[in-house]
Amino acid sequence: MFLPPYPIGLWLVDRNPFIVVPDEYGCMVDNHRLPPLVLVVLSLTLTCACLGNTPGHGDPNPGLISPALAATMIEEMRDDPGFVIIDVRTVDEFAAGHIPGAINIDSATLAEQIDNLDPNGTYLIYCRRGGRSAGVHSLMREAGFSEVYEIEGGISAWQAEGLPVAVG
């Protein structure tokens, strides 16, 4: 792997902008005169591309959200008929305590039932600690579901934050 002698990006030396870009020989320096607005836009774009959390780039699970964010999501979307909370634990685990409004689809049978779900819906999934829901999340994404969110740490983390649990 070739490493350029200096970082690729936008540089300002003696108030003169120049751009370092990759080429077939390593790096090329282009010192065209750039208007200030272009410099700002280019700088912001490079910064966001390098530091941003773009799904699929560096983030192993772009749909992983905290219990607090999940609670906010539930509050904001509870009247949306396309929003579904799925507890992927067993029937007995679900009965012992689940997030209010959740339905139960055991992770062991989800593949058989996935055709009954709307791929255009928004799904919030969880299990006890995150192991089973991670597999379900991957399965749903591979099946074409684009809005799938998983509660980080599962219902264990949800309860640790003092969020509501229904029994039965």
Descriptive overview:
With 168 residues, the protein is of the alpha/beta class. It has 2 domains: 9-51, no CATH class; 64-160, Oxidized Rhodanese, domain 1 (3-Layer(aba) Sandwich), CATH 3.40.250.10. The protein is built from 6 helices and 8 strands, in the order E-E-E-H-E-H-E-H-E-H-E-H-E-H. The protein has helices at 36-51, 67-77, 91-96, 110-113, 131-142, 154-160, and strands spanning 9-13, 16-23, 26-30, 64-65, 83-87, 103-104, 122-126, 147-151. It has a 5-stranded parallel β-sheet. The protein has a 3-stranded antiparallel β-sheet with strand order 1-2-3, with helices on one face. The longest helix is centred in the first third of the chain and has 16 residues, at 36-51. The termini are far apart.
Overall geometric form: globular
How much beta, percentage-wise? 15-25%
What summary fits the major beta sheet? 5 strands, parallel
Structural class of the secondary elements?
alpha/beta
Broad CATH class of the largest domain: Alpha Beta
What percentage of residues falls in helices of 4 or more residues? Answer: 25-40%
Number of helices: 6
Q: How many runs of DSSP E, i.e. beta strands? A: 8
Radius of gyration: 23 Å
Strand ordering within the main sheet? 4-8-7-5-6
Low-pLDDT regions: 1-6, 52-59
Averaged pLDDT, please?
A: 79
**Can you name the CATH architecture of the largest domain?**
3-Layer(aba) Sandwich
Distance between the termini: 57 Å
Name the CATH superfamily classification of the largest domain. Answer: Rhodanese-like domain
Would you tell me which CATH topology of the largest domain applies? Oxidized Rhodanese, domain 1
Number of domains: 2
Order of helices and strands: EEEHEHEHEHEHEH
